[in-house]
Amino acid sequence: MIGIWSLLVVTLFVILGLTSDRHGNSRCREVQIKINYPAGDYFINEQDIRNYIILLGDSVKGEKLSQINIQALEEMITQNPYVSGVRVYATLDGVIKIEVSQRKPIVRVQNAINQKFYISDDGIIMPLNPGRPARVLLASGNIFEIQASDINLNIKEIKTAADSALARTALYRIYNIASYIDKNPFLKAQIEQIYLNKKGDFELIPLVGKQLIILGDANDIKEKFDNLQIFYKQGLSHEGWDKYDTINLKYRNQVVCTKIKEQ
């Protein structure tokens, strides 16, 4: 019985070895690229990915699969700031498949020195793509952090740390506010801009109405936005959109409003 199992194992290894050898000696007959866009924004396209292939050589088509540096290609594509993930592999019939996931921007930042960039939903700083703009929230005002390559807000690490200097930065607080708005269809349709004033308070500018929404700091944002939604649905539905010039959410469990003065 042991001898039969040993023979089966040896046979299996021989078959796998022959298959691997044939696979390595076969040539690339086609490159297939698939890009996953998480929203309606397109920062990268198939030609952008093919340009990385050109960096490896004029073309991988016709090359032996064993001579194509799949790992190097994967690493090059991963360095693109618009890419959140990539998988490159070869099939038995000679096709190189490249599967790319694009990052999703949730807010466009314009800082105090007029630098403009995106923050993605996973906390990565992304440069603008002038030819392919994204329709997302705008954050501006007294934001003094500058754009730099490879900035990662370390979202997961900050959330588990008791104290973090990064968590106190304007960019991280903007990320938290924008992330909450992005996940809430009502707020996403209503809020157009985030502004950081000189006092360090965040102000929100809505698409509908002339009210200035004072959020305050970025703490307790769920409670603040819950209060705002209740006020929108119950208060403004009776009073009308043009009765107030400010809606203040700074104070715990309160919505303090200032009416527009009669002319």
Task: Tell me, rounded to a whole number, the average pLDDT.
Answer: 82
Task: Identify low-pLDDT runs.
Answer: 7-24
Element order, helices and strands? Answer: HEHHEEEEEEHHHEEEHEE
Percent range for helical residues?
25-40%
Total of domains: 2
Instruction: Name the shape in a single word.
Output: elongated
Radius of gyration: 26 Å
Question: Order of strands across the widest beta sheet?
Answer: 6-5-4-7-8-9-10-11-12
Quickly name the level 1 CATH class of the largest domain: Alpha Beta
Q: With helices defined by DSSP (H or I, 4 residues minimum), what is the helix count?
A: 7
Distance from N terminus to C terminus (CA atoms, Å) equals: 100 Å
Structural class: alpha/beta
Major pleated sheet: 9 strands, mixed
Question: How many β-strand stretches?
Answer: 12
What is the fold named in CATH at topology level of the largest domain? Rossmann fold
Question: In words, what does this structure look like?
Answer:
33% of the residues lie in helices and 25% in strands. The protein has 263 residues and is α/β, with parallel strands linked by helices. The chain has 2 domains: 27-102, Ubiquitin-like (UB roll) (Roll); 105-259, Rossmann fold (3-Layer(aba) Sandwich). Residues 7-24 have low confidence and may be disordered.
Question: What is this structure's SSE topology?
Answer:
Blueprint: H1 2-25, E1 30-36, H2 46-56, H3 70-78, E2 83-90, E3 95-102, E4 105-110, E5 116-120, E6 125-127, E7 137-141, H4 155-160, H5 170-182, H6 185-190, E8 191-196, E9 202-206, E10 212-216, H7 221-239, E11 244-248, E12 256-259
Parallel strand pairs: 1-3, 4-7, 7-8, 10-11
Antiparallel strand pairs: 2-3, 4-5, 5-6, 8-9, 9-10, 11-12
Helix pairs in contact: 2-3
